[in-house]
Amino acid sequence: MMVALIALTACNGNKFHISGNIEGASDLTLVLEQSSNGEWFIIDSVKVDKQGKFKISAEAPDVPSIYQLRLGNQSICFPIDSLDDLTLNAKLPNFNKDYDLSGSEHAIQVMKIDKEAMRFASGKGSAAELQAWKDQLSRQIVADPSGIVAYYTINKY
To answer: Does the predicted TM-score (pTM) go above 0.85?
Structure first.
């Protein structure tokens, strides 16, 4: 039994996984990209099936890194820390706005930051709410200045 477990683990490798459903994306190509010094590099791609389901895997990074899933000209960013197993549920036509990401606390934090930023960018929310959000982000960065969420927030916002 131990040999079977080791063999199964070896076949799976050091990979992270993302799976889920994208409503309205039947037969479209979903691209996985990794950020490096402000540039995006294609890691892999997968065709979304007729039911909108997809699954994609890639080698886990040695250090936490920022990735994105791109569908056409819209993308969703998220951090990968190691052997994460994320689930994405989204809908077209607003892939980058109408989505839910789960499976990692860091990915959920980045999703919440991005959604709040989009809300303020669209003119929703008062100046006081915007300032409170910026203060909250500052506290979050100070609490874990070397963390992947702080890195993402500083570099994007």
So the answer is: yes
Q: How far is CA 144 from CA 36, 62, 84, 88, 110, in A?
A: 21, 19, 20, 26, 14
* Separation of alpha carbons 75 and 123, rounded Å: 21
DSSP state of 156: H
Token pair recorded at residue 143: 């609490």
Cβ-Cβ contacts under 8 Å for 15 (sequence gap 6 or more): 57, 58, 59, 60, 83
Separation of alpha carbons 45 and 153, rounded Å? 26
Query: What's the rounded mean pLDDT across residues 33-45?
Result: 94
Give Cβ neighbours of residue 51 (< 8 Å, ≥ 6 apart). 21, 26
> In terms of DSSP bridges, do strands 29-36 and 99-102 run parallel, antiparallel, or are they unpaired?
unpaired
Q: Which residues have CB under 8 Å from 52's CB, separation 6+?
A: 21, 22, 23, 24, 25, 26
DSSP 93: S
CA distance 99 to 111: 9
pLDDT in tens, 104-113: 999 999 999 9
